[in-house]
Amino acid sequence: MTSYLEAIGARTKRLPTGAVAVTWPPTHLGKFGPATTLAFDPAVAEVAKAELCVPGSDILDRILADAATRGLHCVARVDTEGENPPEDVLAANLRFPNATPEVRAAERGILPYLLFNFRVTVTTDERTEFLRSVLLNAETLQEHTAADVFLQESLTLPEDPIVAGSDLAAAYRAACLALERSINADVTGIRSKAEALLRDELARINEFYDTSIKEQYDSRMQDPLESERVFRAERDRRVEEARRKYALTAAAKLVNARTILVPTTTLRVRLANARAAKEVDLEFDAVNLETNRPACESCNTPTETVYLCVRGHVTCEACDRSCAFCDTLACATCAPDVLARCLMCARDACPDHAFTDEIGRKTYCGDHIHACAICGRMVGPPYVKACALCGQSYCAVCVEASGRCTTCRSLAVIRATHEDVARATAAKGEPRNLTKWVRGQNGKVTVLVGKGAVFQYLYVLEKDGTVVRRQKGVGLV
């Protein structure tokens, strides 16, 4: 801001409130009036009754629009030879674990990009400066890699008017956000180093003054308390100096902005799987051959691993929610409606694998829901009871308080020559001379009880004739 005001010949005066009084030159009276008081902090603006100048404010938008017309902005063109197959570029940049991408359309044209060059200064006990470039698509404001070729002065063109006007204020805000992401790792490393040095410095200071205070008491001075007070005050002053010395400040200054015309391929890509389909727009420039990252529709974060939600949304790895029993996938936004959590194992299940308890109205997965073979009810573990006779589990409604299920309470007499009797007693050692048999059947098993002179024999057979339970006893029926 200071560089801009100096460049146009404006006079500035910093006020005690922290605001800046600006007297505009004659060339800018029509745009800004004779004078303006600017503040870069909302609190200062309120106290000084100044115009707030921050990203998004009208005054900053007008300043950026004026600055864009002054020599810090030029136009360049990048020419490339040959074309790369869109399918190859797409496959090299993005992954689609649960969908198949199909390039429906690919159109190559010349698109304007905005290159912002920043000088970043990070200060602790040392001063570090570095340059960082941010390249944005002027139409979509999506970030691209600023390759070295974009920095070549030889690309500059004299025909500035060939570029349509861009929303430089919005582009500048997007560039600042991209710059923050870009320098985060550098700033974090510098901050960590400064914090380590500060810890060492504070340790030395505390050790020195703790030792000095102890020596005062050990020397049996008549008034060690006064000396201690002096030492502690001096230590506090040294500590504060050390904290200021290693405090981190970071500032970024826009050096220049440049419009670059780059051959760019715009793609229309259809993503599809067995449950959903969606078309997305992507692009890649002829220099970087990097497609832009689609934004997750749940968290709005660009992602190179793209999942397709069952309702047709693009989602990232952090926001995808999968059925534990199949490949159904929902984004974080749709998951509460699409997936249900089993009350027992807390696994998410899609509608094909989630079941509602018809008694308790709770949700369970297929591993924890029980289909009653007698009445067909779907019930959860709290409402499953085992029959005291056949030992099979049914819903609580079909097992009475006596402990017997409906099937075992309705056993009917059959002939000793019945085919189920023959299957149950086919094994060696089974009783074949019993003449009294009763039988019951449901959707899962067949229950047989043979009555002898003293003992009864219980057999529970599955549909294929396999005996799953055998019991010999007295008083079974």
Write structural notes for this entry.
By secondary structure, this protein is α+β, with helices and mostly antiparallel strands. The protein has 5 domains: 2-67, no CATH class; 73-292, no CATH class; 298-338, no CATH class; 344-406, no CATH class; 411-477. It has helices at 2-8, 29-32, 42-48, 58-67, 86-93, 168-218, 224-246, 335-338, 406-409, 419-424; strands spanning 11-14, 20-23, 35-39, 51-52, 73-77, 100-123, 127-137, 143-144, 156-157, 249-272, 277-285, 307-308, 314-315, 320-322, 329-331, 340-341, 348-349, 354-356, 363-365, 370-371, 378-379, 384-386, 393-395, 412-414, 436-441, 445-451, 456-462, 467-473. Strands 5, 6, 7, 8, 9, 10 and 11 form a 7-stranded mixed beta sheet that branches. A 5-stranded antiparallel beta sheet has the order 24-25-26-27-28. A hairpin with a 6-residue loop joins strand 20 (370-371) and strand 21 (378-379). Helix 6 packs antiparallel against helix 7 (224-246).
Short summary of the structure?
With 477 residues, the protein is α+β, with helices and mostly antiparallel strands. It has helices spanning 2-8, 29-32, 42-48, 58-67, 86-93, 168-218, 224-246, 335-338, 406-409, 419-424; strands at 11-14, 20-23, 35-39, 51-52, 73-77, 100-123, 127-137, 143-144, 156-157, 249-272, 277-285, 307-308, 314-315, 320-322, 329-331, 340-341, 348-349, 354-356, 363-365, 370-371, 378-379, 384-386, 393-395, 412-414, 436-441, 445-451, 456-462, 467-473.
